[in-house]
Amino acid sequence: MPPKDLGPLLHGAGQRFRADLADPARVQAEVLQSILRQNRDSAFGRRHAFCAIGDGAAYAAAVPVARYEALAADIARQAQGETNILTTQDVLAFEETGGSSDGGKLIPYTADGLAGFQYGLLAWLDDLCTHHPGLGEGPFYWAISPACRAARATAGGIPVGMPDAAYLGAEVGMAVAQMLAVPADVGAISDVDEWRACTLRHLFASTNMSMISVWSPSFLTELLRYAVIGREALARRIAQDDPARAAEVLAQLSRAAPDYRRLWPRLQVISCWDQASAAVGAATLRTMFPQVLVQGKGLLATEGLVTIPLAGFAYPALSLRSGYFEFVDAAGVCFGAHNLAQGQQYQLLMTTHSGLYRYALGDQVVVRGHAARTPLLEFIGRSGATSDLCGEKLSDAFVAGRIAALGQPFAMLAPDAGDGRQRYALLLDAAAGDAARADAAAAALERSLHDNPQYAYARKLGQLDAVVSVRCLHPLQDWLAERMARGQRLGDIKQPALLSNTAWRAWVSVAAPEPAA
């Protein structure tokens, strides 16, 4: 069980993490010097004179802020098998993610880079096991998406993609694998329908599950929706091994509101994103599982781990040894982790042992307090996700806050240029209400968007029409399918608040207009 089996392997990771919180300036200085010292003889380190950099100010002066495109040529050389380019350590693997101007991005991982992930993730697990002894009462569901991508390697023979256990380290990863309610090899199933059926059979056959860990809350709510829709076939599969359990599952999933507590009485924790555009989905899970702790995951990007949740704090804490972090305010002034202002909004820069230097993650955070002297951060959206039809410059972070107030189970704002007019369309789930309710939500959003003076000015000048509602048949399914078609793993897909172009009309299924009364 987790506290008994994982505890010795975690070696007090949570306690060490909490001890670091008292002195973020010292810890971050140590991390920066470690990265510079280790990589001073790499091509990048020689080019930027790492050997002469003594502190964070000198580092900021010597190394420019970089987006992926600035590092792409060096990463491509590493993918070809060249060494000593960005790091002196070998690249063990790449992970692929979206977001560059050319499409996909290859993110390198070294041994010390992976150790940065493990520092935060093991502390999180240790903290959970310490404060929630009920986790020892049953197995975990650690969501693993269908493969959907063929295993491949770069031209230099370096793997693209890693098993989830690699982020936890060999020992802990193996222990977690032995505790899984759904076997890890289910993630190797490439057909989504087959993967879903197999996942649900294992998931609902488990009677003593203690924890569910997913990325997006919509990942879990969609999975449960499919369980309800296909409950009879699901029950038949479970009945092959346990007829009594099958009857219990069928009875609960046939109810208007299934009581999942009856199916998983030992479930203690659901871990998922719960900030920015994921806030509504997390709130839905809290309604569905009222006696379970739905804990936000904090901020974890493919490029690196930024924050983790800790018991006793309302917001996640900066993971001080997962990388070297800089925070840029609206005026372009750069700050260290030790001198951030509460309530202030910042853009994140991250430097990692894997060879990303002053890397602009594109994430915006707000300081919501401190754990000892280390900032607690709320992720509020992507700084690079914007829409600008005629100078209004809407950002994902701004729109996310306004959409959250609508209380809709699904909502996205998208630019629309129908009938030669420029405007925004609010995409909503048709199952959540009729046309009148959808129009009311669009009108409420329209009023709140006027908090952006550029939007208000564009509306005043008639450059933009008012927001219109678009009722969609199954918008979440459509969004997930569109992202998967672009190579993203199902469990990694985030739902943005704002789309940046009109391409949504190619993949969304719009509900037919309601007949006139």
Keywords:
517 residues; alpha+beta; GMP Synthetase, Chain A, domain 3; five-stranded antiparallel β-sheet; four-stranded parallel β-sheet; 18 helices; acid-amino acid ligase activity; GH3; GH3 middle domain-containing protein
Question: Could you characterize what this model shows?
Answer:
- The mean pLDDT is 89.
- The protein has 517 residues and is an alpha+beta fold.
- Helix 9 (192-205) crosses helix 11 (231-239).
- The strands form eight sheets. It has a five-stranded antiparallel beta sheet with strand order 14-13-15-16-17. It has a four-stranded parallel beta sheet with strand order 3-6-7-8, covered by helices on one side. Strands 20-21-22 form a three-stranded mixed beta sheet, with helices on one face.
- It has 18 helices and 22 strands.
- Among the domains are: 113-296, no CATH class; 386-506, GMP Synthetase, Chain A, domain 3, CATH 3.30.300.
Could you write a compact summary of the structure shown?
With 517 residues, the protein is α+β, with helices and mostly antiparallel strands. Helix content is 37%, strand content 19%.
Average pLDDT for all residues:
89
Strand order of the largest sheet: 14-13-15-16-17
Q: What characteristic shape results from the CA principal axes?
A: globular
Describe the main β-sheet briefly.
Answer: 5 strands, antiparallel
- Poorly predicted runs: none
- The Rg value, from CA coordinates, equals 24 Å
Q: DSSP strand (E) fraction?
A: 15-25%
Query: Which structural class do the helices and strands define?
Result: alpha+beta
For the termini, the CA-CA separation is 60 Å
Give the % helix: 25-40%
Q: How many DSSP-defined strands?
A: 22
By DSSP (H or I, 4+ residues per run), the number of helices equals 18
